[in-house]
Amino acid sequence: MTQLVLTALTQHELSGVSSLLQAAARAVGAHACILWQTAPDTDSTPARGYLFVLAQWAGADGQQCKVRTLPLYGSVTGAAVLGQKIIKVLDINADERVFKDDKFLSEAHIVSMVSAPIELRPGISAALNLYWNVKKRFDDHDHRRIMELVRLLPSLYQTISDRVGLKMIGTVNDILHEAELRAPDRPLPKVEVKKVIQSICEFVTNSFDCIETSVFLEDPLTSPGEFEMMGTTWPEIFQKPVYRRNEGLTGWVLNNAQPVNIFDLLRFNDEVEFYRGKYRDITWNNPLDIESAVRKHLSPEFDNNDLPPLSFIAAPILKGTIVRGAIRCCVTWKAPYYFSGVELKLLELIASQISRYWGNWLARQEILEENESWEKLVNSILTLNKLVHGELTKSPPKPEQIFESALEQTQSVITGSDIMDVRLYDPDSKQLYFVSTFGAAWKEGDSRAVEQRRKRRFDVGDSEKESAGARVFRTGEPSHLTDVTADPNYSVTFPKTKHMLICPISVGEDKYGVLDIRSTQERDFPSYAKNMALLLAKQLGLYWYLAAHVGELQRVQKEKLRAYEDLEHQLLNPVFLAHARIQQILTPQRFGKQLEEDEPLKTELLRMRGICGKAMRVTLSTWMFVNLSQGKAVSPKLEQLKYDGLIKRLIEAAMDSELTIDPERHIRFEVKRDTFDILKTIDVRADYGFLEQAIGNIMDNAGKYSSRNSTVRIHGGLTSTRRFHITVSNKGIPIRPGDVKHCVERDWRSDYARLVTSEGSGIGLYIVDNVMRAQGGELIITPTVDKITEIKLVFPQFKHMAETA
Amino acid sequence: MNTPRNILVVENDFLQSDWLVKSLRQAFPQAKVWQIKTESAFRDSFEAIAQNPPDAIVMDVMLQWTEASDDIEEQTFPKRVLDEGPYRAGLRCEEMLTADGRTKNIPMILYTILERHDLEPDFPDLNAHPNVKHLRKDSTPEPLIQLIREVRERALP
C-alpha cells in the first residue's frame, strides 16, 4: 500500500494511472489489472450501456488487452458495477457469468479474476479488475487488500489528476509569462505568438497523451470573424487553417461560447440525439474519416484491435462574453483513454490563460496600431498643411482640392475606411451636398448612376426624417454608427456600408458641412478612429475658413492694388509734366542765356528737376512694385544704347543727385565720359526708361550713403566676360559680404542704411534687380573693398556695329 | 512781447530745412534760428540745450541717427535706435526733453509730413501734452510761424 501511495505521488502525467494499477496488482499478486469505466454521458438506455478500458497494466511481459469495451449487461465486470459488489471468479472456464468476457480472457490466458466496483469520481462508476493466470484461492487477507485498493484508488487517481492539472496550469503560465517578458512594451510579431501557442499545444498534448491539441484565435483588428489556427500538434498538414463560427464541433464552440465534450467521435452519430440535447443543434459529419486518420497515428498496439474511445474536448477562449477563439484536444492514446470533465475543466483554465495573453497582445497591437495611426495622422496633417499653403497662394484658393487630398489621407490614417466624402451646407436650400468624394465605390455603376449619387442632397432641419449626416451637421455632435442598419435615420447611399463615422466640419460656432467616413468591412472602426475623424474634420473646417478668408483678402487686396495703380497714374502725370516743363526752361535754345545770367534761379530749377525726377522714380518704382507683387512681368522696350543719349542721361542724373544733397556734405558726382566710348562700336540693347530708373536709384543711394567730401564716380566699359556695364562707385557706408544677397530682397535695408537716412522703403535695389533682369542683364553688387563700394549694371551680350550693319 | 529769441530746428532734410530756416529768420529777425540735423547730434547737444533752453523747438519726426561715413563700422549705436530705426526718432528726442526738468517745459512743435493719427499709436498722449504740438508740414511756412507765436505766448508767465 505504501508503494501504491508513493507511486501516485511520483506521477506527472495522467497515464501514470497505469503505474498505479501495476502497484495495485502487485499488492495482491495479480498478473494483470484493468480499470474499466462505464461510458459516460451516452444513451441512458441500459441495454446500450457499455464499459471501456480507462487504464490497464498487462504484466511485465503481458499483452495489452485487445478488447476495449465490454457490455455493461452480461459481463462479470458489468455485474460488479451494476450490483456494486465484488465478484470473484475462481475459474473463468467454469463460470457461466463470464461468457461475454470470454474472448479477451482466454486470449490473455486468464484463469481467475476479481471485479470490484469503484467510484472513481462522484457519479462515475468503474470497476477495478484484477487478473491471475493461475487459479487463485482468495482468502480474507486478499479480500481486505482488495477492499483497501477500492477505497484508496479513487483518491490516488485524483491525486495524479490534480498534480498533472497543477503542473499544466503552472507550465502554461510560465510559457505565457516568459512570452510577455520578451517584449514588455510592444506586441510580439504574430509569427512569434504562434510559436508560443504552439509550445502550449505541445505541452498539453504531452500531458494528456493525446494526438491533437489545437488553438484557434480571432484577430478582430485584421480579420474579424476568422479564427486562425495558431498552433496544432495534429501530426499531418492541417487541412483547415481558419475556422468560422458553426463550422464543425469547433465552430459550435465558437458560436455558442460553451465547452464541448464528446466521449467517442465514432459513436457521435449514433448518439447524436443525446448530444443535441446537451449541445443545441450540434452537428459533425466526420469530414476526415476520423477512424482511419487516427489509426495512422496510434501505436502499433491498436493495429487491428478495437480502438479506445475517440474522445474530443474543446473549450472557448473567452474575453467576458466575447469568443476570441477555442482550444481543443482529440483522442488520447494512453490511459486514461478519454477526456473526462476534469480534463475539460483544465482545458477551460488553459483557455482562460490564453485569453488573457491574447487579450493583452491584441490590446498592445491596438495601441501600436493607434500610435501608428496617430503618427500617420500627424504626417497627413503636415502634408495637408503644405498643400493648403500652396493652395492658399493661388487666386482664388480652391478648397475642394484640399478636401480631395484630405480624403485620400483619411484612408491611410483610419483603418477600415473605404468610402469617404465631404458634404457642405447650402444655406439657400438648407441642404447638404457632396463636394468631394473618394473611394472606388463612388465610381461604381454607369455614368448616370455616378452622377445621381453625387447629386443627392440631404435636408437639414428638425424633421424626424433628418438623415444621420444632417443630424450631425445640425447638432455639431460627431456620430459613430457601429451598425448603419440600426440607425433608423441612416440614409443609404452605399448599400454595402456597414459602419460609418460622421463628423462636423466647423470652426468655433461656424458650421460648414460634414466629413463622412464609411467602412464596408466586417470590422468596425477602431475605438480611436472617431477622435481622428473629428480632428481631420476640424482641420478641414480650418482650411475651409482660411480659404474663404484668404480669398476675400485677395479680393480686397486686388481692389486696393487697383486703387494704388490709379493713384500712381494720377501722381505720375503732374510730376512728369512738371519735370518736362522744367526741362524746357533749362533748354539753352529757349531760356538758356537768361538762365546763365541768373545762377541761383538755374540752380533752383535744377534742384526742382532733381526733386521731380526723384518723385517720378519713386512713382515708377511703386508701379513696378505693384506689378511685381501681382506676379506680372515688367516688359522692357529694348533699343540701342547710343553714346550721346546715355551720357546726357547720366550727366543729368548726376547733376540732379548732387544738387539734392546737402551742400555741406560736399559730395560730388563725376561721369567718366571716355569710358563710355566703347558704345560707339558696339550695339547694346536696353530700355531707356528702365535705365533711368536703375541709374537714378543707384545714384540716389550713392548720394545718401557717401561720406562727406567724397566723389561718386560713374564709369562704363566691358566686364571680364565682355559685357557692357555701367558702374557707380562711392566711398561711404560699407556693404558687408553677408549683406550682398539681401540687398536685392524686397523691404530689406541694412542696419547702417537705417542709421544714416530717415527714409527709404527698401525696394530700390529690388526694383533695379528686376528691371535689369527684365532687360536680360543683371545687377552685380560687390562687397565694399578699401572703403569703396561698387554697384554694376551689366547688360546682355552685345553685337559689334559691323555685325549689326 | 512774444517774439522768440532762440528757435531750434531739428530737421535732417536739406531741401526742407534750407527754406524753413530762412523763412523763420525772416519772420523772427531777432531770433537765433539754429539747426540740428541728426538724432545723435541732438543727443550730443542736449546739455547745451538744457543750459540755454530755446524758446521753441521745431522737431521733425523721421530723423537719421547720423551722417553717412566710411568709418561707421567703428561706431556703436544705442540698441533702441537699432531696433526702432529712424521712423520715430523725433519722438525719442521729445522723450529726452520731457524727462529732464530743465527742458520739459520747452514748447515743441512736431513738424512732420505724418498725420496726427499716424503718431498716436507711438504717442498716445499727444493731444493732452501741454508743451507738444503737432503740425503737418505745409508748402508755406506761415502756419508754423503762427504756431510758434502761439506757443511762445502761452509759455510767457
What share of residues are in beta strands of chain B? 15-25%
Distance between the termini of chain A: 135 Å
**Most residues in contact: chain pair:** A-B, 27 and 24 residues
Sketch the major β-sheet of chain B.
Answer: 5 strands, parallel
CATH topology of chain B: Rossmann fold
Quaternary structure classification: heterodimer
What is the average of the pLDDT values of chain B? 91
Strand order of the largest sheet of chain A: 3-2-1-6-5-4
CATH class of chain B: Alpha Beta
Characterization of the model:
The complex is a heterodimer of chains A (805) and B (157). Chain A is α+β, with helices and mostly antiparallel strands. Helix content of chain A is 45%, strand content 20%. Chain A has 22 helices and 27 strands. Chain A has a six-stranded antiparallel sheet with strand order 3-2-1-6-5-4, with helices on both faces. A six-stranded antiparallel sheet of chain A has the order 9-8-7-12-11-10, sandwiched between helices. A six-stranded antiparallel sheet of chain A has the order 15-14-13-18-17-16, with helices on both faces. In chain A, strand 11 and strand 12 form a beta hairpin. Chain B is globular and about 45 Å long. Chain B starts with 5 loop residues before the first strand and ends with a helix. Chain B has 157 residues and is of the alpha/beta class. At the A-B interface, helix 20 of A face loops of B.
